[in-house]
Write a structure and sequence with these properties.
Elements: H1 2-18, E1 29-40, E2 44-65, E3 71-91, E4 95-110, E5 115-122, E6 124-129, E7 134-136, E8 142-144, E9 151-153, E10 156-164, E11 170-185, E12 188-201
Antiparallel strand pairs: 1-2, 1-12, 2-3, 3-4, 4-5, 4-6, 5-10, 6-9, 7-8, 10-11, 11-12
Length: 209
């Protein structure tokens, strides 16, 4: 399990590093960062930090003619992105849940109004931290267990929407629903539902949508 944690940390640094690349000739294009409020089952508060890189991008322009001879033009950008995310939420009187996951995301942007929708999936890890946990040894002595909890493999499925903002420090607003699936939880699979409201940032000089 320690090897899995090390690999996850290296993957996060990989995404963070490549999100800084701004060379238009590179297969990796400028990405962005997100800071989100996380509500586990709506009521358990937390925070999440994420970053993504654009792997591919294509813009489509569609023109339609109506019976009134009025022409309507719609333009969309379709993106394939790689994202890395890390965060936590607090379950009062129970535990703190920390998560780290990576996702391959498809995003479709309406260039007319800046609205977009997205869907993603990928691997992840979940770690629970329980406070005030004790154990009794064979001699009957009671000792506190530091950092008590477990690590679970937790694949993720995400659905989201949002809107790009022009002439603003914030690149876009986002709302995301995330499903984390905890494997080997009491010999079963348990889903965790998170709702996220966040803001996107892009610190590059040459910003791209």
């Amino acid at each position: 399990m320690k090897k899995v944690i090390v690999i996850s940390v290296l993957l996060l640094f990989f995404v963070l590093g490549y999100s800084q690349i701004h060379d238009s000739t590179s297969v990796f294009r400028t990405g962005s960062y997100t800071l989100s409020y996380v509500g586990n089952n709506l009521v358990k508060p937390g925070l999440k930090f994420g970053t993504n890189i654009i792997l591919s991008e294509k813009t489509l322009v569609k023109t339609k003619k109506r019976k009134s001879s009025k022409t309507i033009t719609n333009a969309f950008t379709r993106q394939l992105m790689l994202a890395g995310n890390i965060g936590f939420f607090w379950h009062p009187k129970s535990h703190i849940g920390a998560f780290n996951y990576y996702e391959l995301t498809y995003r479709k942007i309406n260039l007319k109004n800046g609205k977009y929708s997205k869907i993603g999936f990928g691997p992840g890890l979940y770690r629970s931290f329980y406070p005030e946990t004790y154990q009794v040894d064979d001699n009957g002595d009671i000792a506190k267990i530091p950092f008590a909890g477990r690590i679970y493999l937790s694949p993720v499925l995400t659905f989201g929407s949002g809107k790009f903002v022009k002439d603003s420090f914030f690149k876009y607003r986002t709302f995301t629903t995330t499903l984390l699936f905890l494997f080997d939880y009491n010999s079963g699979v348990v889903p965790l539902l998170n709702f996220e409201i966040g803001l996107g940032f892009d610190f590059s000089k040459n910003k791209t949508k």
